[in-house]
From TrEMBL:
Protein name: Trafficking protein particle complex II-specific subunit 120 homolog
Domain Trs120/TRAPPC9 fourth Ig-like: 1061-1189
Domain Trs120/TRAPPC9 third Ig-like residue range list: 879-1044
Residue span, Trs120/TRAPPC9 TPR region domain: 341-507
Record key words, sorted: Golgi apparatus
Species of the source: Salix dunnii
Protein location: Golgi apparatus
Every Trs120/TRAPPC9 N-terminal domain range: 7-198, 214-280
Listed GO CC annotations: trans-Golgi network
Coiled-coil ranges per UniProt: none
Ranges of residues in domain Trs120/TRAPPC9 first Ig-like: 557-657
């Protein structure tokens, strides 16, 4: 059998290209490639070389459209025993090729060439071509014979044109030789034999026929010989490019072979007629032509089967021609739409391979079947027969056969999805014609995943083992290393620990035969995946700068190290990847995870980041991976120049070979594991948790930037503060970069920003520009916030929990180097980015004094009747009375016994000290100058109460009097919600007035709260202020009106004495009266509203038992004047007096109480009294005034 056969093979002239003399292999290949361009010579181009000595036997030669077809055989081939049967198998021309600079002696060249030509008896034309001759060789060339042709030195194009002329001359010579042969074959008898013929020749058969054969047999033999001669003449007509003449001779041969039952030659003649038919109708597109070819070749195959002779089966068989006919028809029909028919033909040919005697024929048959299946797109069938070819090669115990087996198996790796990464990369960049390469680029992802398809695992392992075995035999250590690496990496779950160790030894043995540092495209172990890109520290965040704006840092809040995010407001996002900025000269780190899922210890000699851009210096590290283990490592490097950086994976030096491990391959592997396509996840089987897929961002390197480094002076630990504590800390800022800081801005972020009371921004600003290595100290004043309920629960735990709290604020320092002038920026220049320094103020707020509860207390303290009325705490604006600060303090802190209080309000704060410290509590009240005329020239004055000490694990109560916070006037604005005018407009006014009243009331309460300060101190340096706002608001929630608003009427009693009534020597207590003495008194009623109040006043005197002592039969007090039903019209904001006298019969303690019934009460008074019915009477009663009566009964 012959390779690469087709229906048109019968029309091809076989020419041997023989190297003569010394010629380099590559040079010979270059010369041979020049011949391949001239495989077809048109008949119209050889007319100048063709000489017709007599009338041509090719009467129907198509000179205008016909051509001669050449098939060049490099190195020649031995004669075939089937040359008489198929003339195209003969070497009809021999061309010697020599390189003149290496073969200066032309005589020896011609002698060697003549010796070679003797081995090709069938050659009709011989030529010897010499390339690049010298001048002397050109002179001698014309004297050495007509077969020598020298090509003068010239460029490739000129030499090809020269060669084309020479090939046209050879074609004309061959055509004339064919004419001679045809004339000879027609005139003289020619004996044509094949290995299928018996030992007796046709001529001897004629001689002996008279002895044992009849005359009929003699005629049959002559016809057989004539039929074979006609078939041979048809072959030469076909080779001469005259299909019509060939078809005529084939028709005669078919008829004679049919009559003589010469089935083998009949099939051969029929094959030639099919070839002549195709060449004759080459330019025609006749649909019936395919059916005709199919029909004729079916007959060809049938007659080859008929020619089978059992007694010759062990010596020679026509089976190879039958199988060749199958292949020719399959190649002719090889199209997608006829795939089924082609597969049937190839399957039939494959079944016949078992009966082939010659192993070489079987090898060629499998090669052709594999090629045809590949052309159909049936890659796995093609790969199967390619493996059969490789097994036939491996049966030959020699290195060349092993090399051939390795090459064949390498072609099957794509079909079995075990191809080398190098072939994947080349296929993705080279677009070849054919279905086998049509979508290699598009199938990349799927091919990588399908590399591990479980249903093919066993077969894939077998293929890789065969590649490994053939590579070892062929002495190719790199191919052996690659096969072992693919086998171990892809199928470690199916390989026993002993097998894994064996593959590891194979890798080590192969690496020993390789030069040090050699690279291989196929990685072995370990598996490497991207774990994460660690975020830049908060001191290295990158921001964009806009020098055209005053706030150049605005809108530059980064997300970790990423300068752009998909969620940037107002910026379109065209890519799912984020952009990462690196700075020249600053080290960067990337976390990767390594996995060794095999049962042996893995030594990684070095691993570092693989960067192809050339502007990054990676730092290699080495490590050991125990069996079935994984490890996360940090790989680092330094960017060296500005530009983009691409990190596809890692470069690993392991098992003596350097390989590149791509992150993408492992991502595809893990994706296949999630879909159930992969045998095993190497990271999960090593105990590593499932990791979210991490993509490599777009990385760019920018020029050097300034770098601020911060730390808190005194230690970077947590700043422990108690609630309300105020403390000043100092933050050190140092420029650790190589560029000065020219611009800086400080802001706050996070929770509890109000806890930062003061930042000395001017200190930083005055030190700009901050040169490299310079340092500045920044003072910051902090105030601890109040802990909430959740914070209190956390505070009860460990301090470590507090350190992780996210409640602390942070300082944001945006800074940059020299910014580009926005008025005249350089063309094409990008603005250098800035940086953002995040300085977390790690405030650990601990619970100091805690509020147990806060409540509002009401206390009644009877007043004593004296000679003068007690002065109210609030003073009217018209008052000009001067009282010193000490008297004012007494009025705030102490209760005047002669004033008393009816319903005195106290705010009681119960505080607890759960800490190990001792606290001193001080309460102070702040009064405005508009209310306190005692503090002239001041806007506000604070008055402090005595300090209260609270020991550890103890509680204390602090009382805050609220009486002095009452408003001086009862104004109706607080009760606007009770007024409801008619009409829509009135409703809107009512709503507005109600909101205003509520707002005014809220403002008054807030004003009250803001004046009360509760401060604490512990030790010499720790001090703070308690936040009592919520406690006071909760306590005043239901009694705010009672605390803030005065009563409509205020009552007071006063003794009226003459200047002589009490002598200077009188020792009576102040405010006491004598029994049995008429004591004049007067009652003072003050109207605290802005409206006239008409009332009916009653005065009652009671004894210590509470009994009325001025009425009844047992009255002990006599009076003079009117005590009941006193009609008084009290003018607005003024006092009204009524005089009376009392005569006490019995000494003791008495109480005077005044009560008034308000007539025609206004809405204001009803609102203050909280009455619902308009008919309900309004009573106003004053506090009791004590009178001490002394004397004897």
């Amino acid at each position: 059998m012959e390779p690469d056969v087709s229906v048109e093979t019968s029309a091809m002239i076989r020419i041997a290209i023989i190297p003569i003399g010394k010629i380099p292999h590559q040079t010979l290949r270059d010369y041979y490639s020049m011949f391949l361009h001239h495989h077809t010579i048109p008949l119209s181009s050889i007319s100048s070389f063709y000489t017709e000595e007599q009338k041509s036997p090719f009467t129907n030669q198509p000179w205008e459209t016909g051509s001669l077809r050449f098939k060049f055989v490099l190195g020649g081939e031995p004669p075939s025993p089937w040359e008489d049967f198929q003339s195209n198998r003969k070497i009809l021309a021999v061309i010697g090729v020599f390189h003149c600079p290496l073969s200066p002696d032309l005589d020896s060249v011609i002698e060697e060439f003549d010796g070679v030509c003797k081995g090709y008896a069938s050659a009709r034309v011989t030529r010897c071509f010499g390339f690049f001759p010298c001048d002397s060789q050109l002179e001698d060339g014309g004297k050495k014979g007509e077969n020598l042709r020298l090509f003068p030195p010239a460029d490739r194009q000129t030499q090809e044109m020269h060669l084309q002329t020479m090939m046209q001359e050879i074609a004309a010579s061959l055509l004339m030789e064919f004419e001679k042969y045809v004339f000879q074959a027609e005139s003289a008898g020619t004996i044509l034999k094949t290995p299928l013929d018996s030992q007796a020749s046709l001529s001897s058969e004629e001689v002996d026929n008279f002895e044992f054969c009849k005359k009929l047999q003699v005629i049959k033999a002559k016809k057989r010989r004539l039929g074979r001669a006609q078939k041979t003449i048809g072959d030469y007509c076909l080779l001469a490019g005259s299909p019509v003449d060939a078809n005529a001779h084939y028709s005669t041969a078919l008829e004679l072979a049919r009559l003589t039952a010469d089935y083998f030659w009949y099939a051969g003649a029929l094959e030639g007629s099919v070839c002549a038919l195709l060449i004759d109708q080459l330019s025609l597109k006749d649909p019936s032509l395919e059916d005709e070819v199919r029909y004729r070749y079916s007959s060809v195959i049938l007659h080859y089967k008929k020619s089978f002779i059992p007694e010759n089966a062990q010596r020679v068989s026509p089976l190879s021609f039958e199988l060749e006919a199958n292949l020719k028809l399959a190649r002719y029909l090889c199209r997608k739409e006829l795939a089924k028919e082609v597969v049937d033909l190839l399957t039939s040919a494959a079944d016949g391979a078992k009966s082939l005697i010659d192993a070489t024929d079987r090898l060629i048959l499998y090669v052709e079947i594999a090629r045809l299946f590949g052309t159909l797109g049936y890659q796995r069938k093609a790969a199967f027969f390619s493996r059969q070819v490789a097994q036939l090669y491996l049966q030959q115990d020699n290195k060349l056969a092993a090399i051939s087996a390795l090459q064949v198996l390498s072609m099957t790796t794509k079909a079995y999805r075990v191809q080398s990464r190098a072939s994947i990369s080349s296929n993705s960049h080279i677009n070849e014609v054919g279905s086998s390469h049509a979508d290699s680029g598009k199938m990349h992802h799927q091919s990588v995943v399908s590399l591990f398809e479980s249903q093919w695992s066993t077969l894939q392992m077998v293929v890789l083992r065969e590649i490994l075995l053939s590579a070892v035999r062929a002495g190719d250590p790199l191919a052996a290393w690659s096969a072992a690496a693919r086998l171990l990496r892809s199928y470690y779950p199916l390989i026993t620990p002993a097998g894994q160790n064996g593959l590891a030894r194979a890798l080590a043995n192969s690496s020993e035969m390789l030069p040090s540092g050699i690279r291989c495209s196929d990685p072995a172990l370990p598996f490497v995946r991207l774990y994460s890109f660690p975020l830049h520290p908060s001191q290295m965040d990158i921001i964009k700068c806009n020098p055209a704006r005053e706030d150049w840092w605005a809108g530059s809040a980064p997300s970790g190290p990423f300068i752009y995010t998909p969620f940037s407001k107002g910026e379109p996002n065209d890519s799912s990847k984020q952009d990462l900025i690196w700075i020249v000269g600053e080290p960067v780190q990337i976390l990767v995870e390594l996995a060794n899922p095999c049962g042996f210890n893995l030594r990684v000699d070095s691993i570092y980041l693989s960067v192809h851009s050339g502007n990054f210096d990676p730092f290699p590290i080495s490590l050991d991976l125990p069996p079935n283990s994984s490890k996360v490592i940090t790989l680092s490097g330094i960017p060296t120049s500005v530009g983009p950086v691409t990190i596809p994976g890692c470069t690993v030096h392991c098992f003596g070979v350097v390989t590149e491990h791509l992150f993408r391959d492992v991502d595809n592997l893990l994706h296949g594991a999630a879909q159930g396509l992969v045998l095993s996840d190497p990271f999960r089987c090593c105990g590593s948790p499932k990791l979210k897929n991490v993509s490599v961002p777009n990385i760019s390197v920018v020029p050097p930037l300034p770098l601020l480094v911060s730390h808190v002076v005194g230690g970077d630990g947590a700043i422990v503060l108690y609630e309300g504590e105020i403390r000043e800390i100092h933050i050190s800022l140092a420029n650790a970069g190589t560029v000065p800081v020219d611009q800086a801005h400080i802001s706050l972020s996070g929770k509890n920003q109000d806890s930062v009371l003061l930042i000395s921004y001017e200190t930083l600003k005055s030190n700009l520009p901050l040169k490299p290595g310079a340092e500045v100290i920044l003072p910051v004043t902090l105030k601890a916030w109040k802990l909430g309920l959740v914070d209190l629960d956390n505070a009860s735990g460990s301090m470590g929990r507090q350190l992780k709290d996210s409640s602390s604020p942070s300082l944001l320092i945006h800074y940059a180097g020299p910014l580009t002038d926005c008025e005249d920026p350089p063309k094409g220049s990008a603005v250098a980015p800035g940086r953002r320094l995040v300085v977390p103020l790690n405030m650990c707020v601990l619970q100091g004094l805690s509020f147990v509860k806060a409540r509002l207390l009401s206390m009644e303290i009877p007043a004593h009747v004296g000679e003068n009325l007690p002065k109210p705490v609030y003073l009217e604006n018209s008052s000009k009375e001067a009282i010193d600060s000490e008297t004012k303090m007494d009025g705030l802190v102490k209760i005047d016994p002669f004033r008393g209080s009816w319903g005195l309000r106290f705010l009681e704060l119960e505080l607890s000290n759960p800490t190990d410290l001792v606290f001193e509590i001080s309460v102070s009240v702040q009064l405005d100058s508009t209310e306190d005329k005692l503090s002239a020239g001041q806007d506000a004055t604070e008055y402090g109460y005595p300090k209260t000490r609270i020991d550890r694990d103890f509680s204390a109560r602090v009382l805050i009097p609220l009486e002095h916070f009452k408003l001086p006037i009862l104004d109706g604005s607080f009760f606007m919600k009770d007024f409801k005018p008619d009409g829509a407009v009135g409703s809107r006014n009512s709503s507005f007035s109600e909101k205003s009243a509520k707002a005014e009331l809220k403002a008054s309460i807030n004003n009250l709260i803001s004046r009360i300060k509760v401060r604490w101190q512990s030790g010499r340096t720790s001090s703070g202020e308690l936040n009592i706002k919520d406690a006071i608001q909760a306590a005043l929630k239901t009694s705010a009106m009672d605390v803030l608003l005065p009563d409509p009427l205020t009552f007071g009693f006063r003794l009226v004495r003459n200047n002589l009534s009490q002598e200077s020597g009188d020792s009576r207590p102040k405010g006491s009266v004598l029994a049995h003495d008429m004591t004049p008194m007067e009652i003072v009623v003050r109207n605290n509203t802005k409206e006239m109040i008409r009332m009916s006043l009653n005065i009652t005197c009671r004894d210590v038992a509470g009994e009325n002592c001025v009425e009844g039969t047992k009255a002990t007090v006599l009076w003079s004047g009117v005590l009941n039903g006193i009609a008084i019209d009290a003018p607005p904001l003024q006092e009204s007096k009524h005089s009376f006298s009392l005569y006490f019969l019995v000494p003791g303690e008495y109480s005077l109480v005044a009560a008034a019934l308000i007539e025609d009460a206004t809405d204001l008074l009803r609102a203050r009294a909280k009455t619902n019915s308009p008919d309900e009477p309004i009573f106003c009663r004053g506090p009791p005034f004590h009178v001490r009566v002394i004397g004897t009964a």
